[in-house]
């Protein structure tokens, strides 16, 4: 009876044969290139096996990376949003500081053109009434502000102070319907009255003759005739001039030069409100006080009147002039005494001129002495 399982080589023999075969293949593969085609073909066959055996590990890594990446991305997204918000806030602050710096520089440049004393003020409020154009500034009576004080920005006049509080003031803008200001055309000096219209972008010139020399683009400046605004400040620019043959007055519309709706920092002008007569009287009184103290330029009564007030210092010059150049200008001593003939104190220079004649006498015989 034939056995069910035939006996073969033992396991040890088989292992030894496989080890020897493996070593021989490794030696042949390392030393020679005969097995490269076979290895490449076997790699194609075994590639699917590699992919299948590596699939569980790759699936686990993919799932873990998906959950981990999402968490990290959410955290990173929140962090970037927070940083973006902070940077935007800083950027807005820097933009505001930049604009504030520009406005302050404009104010400094404009204040350099102002002859009067000025002080910077800041707008802190506006009148909620839409029919009045008034603003509130952070300077008041404690800061020296007075009623009627002019207010301007970096571009031109804005208005005047109409109400005082201890630490704040209310300013009436030029465009208010109750406000008017005397102006003149900068080009030819034509005088007119600029009145507010209730529109922050428009002024009107009242009672301008139809034949008046005014045209579009003319600059209107304050004339100073109202004794309230100093003369020479820009007020508006003429935008439109309408001539109607049937009307005695022309319609003149102008645009304020000041940024009434945009200016945040303003200038308060502390001008001299005295009249010309008062200023002259004060100047004369100050001169009298100075003269009484001996510091004024007063001419004594004993000194005769001269055409040139600096003539009393002139006699010192002729006394040294003949001695300095007697030989080069011999004709000067003859003409110099003629000037002090009208002045008794000037008769001394001829006596000083006599010693000046000795140097030519001590010199040896010259052609001039022979003559």
Automatic annotation (TrEMBL):
Compositionally biased tracts (Low complexity): 317-356
InterPro entries: Cell/Rod_1, Cell/Rod_MreC_2, MreC, MreC_beta-barrel_core
Domain Rod shape-determining protein MreC beta-barrel core: 124-269
This protein's GO CC annotations: plasma membrane
Keyword vocabulary terms for this entry: Cell shape
Region (Disordered): 317-371
Phosphoprotein is among the record's keywords: no
GO biological processes: regulation of cell shape
Domain of life the protein comes from: Bacteria
Keyword Transcription regulation recorded: no
Similarity comment: family membership: Belongs to the MreC family.
Protein name: Cell shape-determining protein MreC
Organism of origin: Pseudomonas vancouverensis
Lineage, opening ranks: Bacteria, Pseudomonadati, Pseudomonadota, Gammaproteobacteria, Pseudomonadales
Gene designation: mreC
């Amino acid at each position: 009876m034939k056995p069910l399982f035939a006996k073969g080589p033992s396991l040890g023999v088989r292992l030894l044969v496989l080890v020897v075969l493996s070593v021989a293949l490794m030696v042949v593969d390392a030393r020679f290139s005969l097995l490269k085609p076979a290895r490449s073909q076997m790699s194609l066959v075994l590639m699917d096996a590699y992919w299948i055996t590596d699939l569980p590990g790759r699936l686990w890594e993919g799932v873990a990376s998906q959950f981990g990446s999402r968490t990290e991305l959410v955290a990173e997204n929140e962090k970037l949003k927070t940083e973006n918000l902070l940077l935007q806030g800083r950027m807005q602050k820097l933009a505001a500081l930049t604009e504030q710096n520009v406005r302050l520089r404009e104010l400094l440049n404009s204040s350099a053109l102002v002859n009067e004393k000025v002080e910077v003020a800041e707008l802190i409020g506006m009148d909620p009434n839409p029919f009045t154009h008034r603003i509130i500034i952070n300077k008041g009576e404690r800061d020296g502000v007075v009623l009627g004080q002019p207010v301007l920005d970096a571009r031109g006049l804005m208005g005047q102070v109409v109400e005082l509080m201890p630490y704040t003031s209310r300013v009436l803008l030029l465009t208010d319907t109750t406000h008017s200001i005397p102006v003149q055309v900068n080009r030819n000096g034509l005088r007119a009255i600029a009145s507010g219209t209730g529109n922050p972008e428009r002024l009107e010139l009242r009672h301008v003759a139809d034949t008046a020399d005014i045209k579009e683009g003319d600059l209107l400046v304050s004339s100073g005739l109202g004794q309230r605004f100093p003369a020479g400040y820009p007020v508006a620019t003429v935008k439109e001039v309408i001539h109607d043959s049937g009307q005695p007055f022309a319609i003149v519309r102008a645009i304020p030069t000041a940024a009434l709706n945009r200016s945040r920092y303003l200038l308060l002008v502390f001008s001299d409100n005295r009249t010309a007569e008062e200023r002259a009287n004060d100047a004369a009184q100050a001169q009298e006080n100075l003269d009484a103290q001996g510091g004024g330029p007063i001419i004594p009564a004993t000194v005769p009147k001269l055409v040139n007030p600096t003539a009393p210092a002139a006699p010192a010059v002729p006394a040294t002039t003949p001695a300095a150049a007697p030989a080069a200008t011999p004709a000067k001593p003859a003409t110099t005494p003629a000037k002090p003939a009208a002045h008794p104190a000037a008769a001394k220079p001829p006596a000083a001129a006599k010693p000046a004649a000795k140097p030519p006498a001590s010199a040896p015989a010259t052609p001039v002495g022979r003559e």
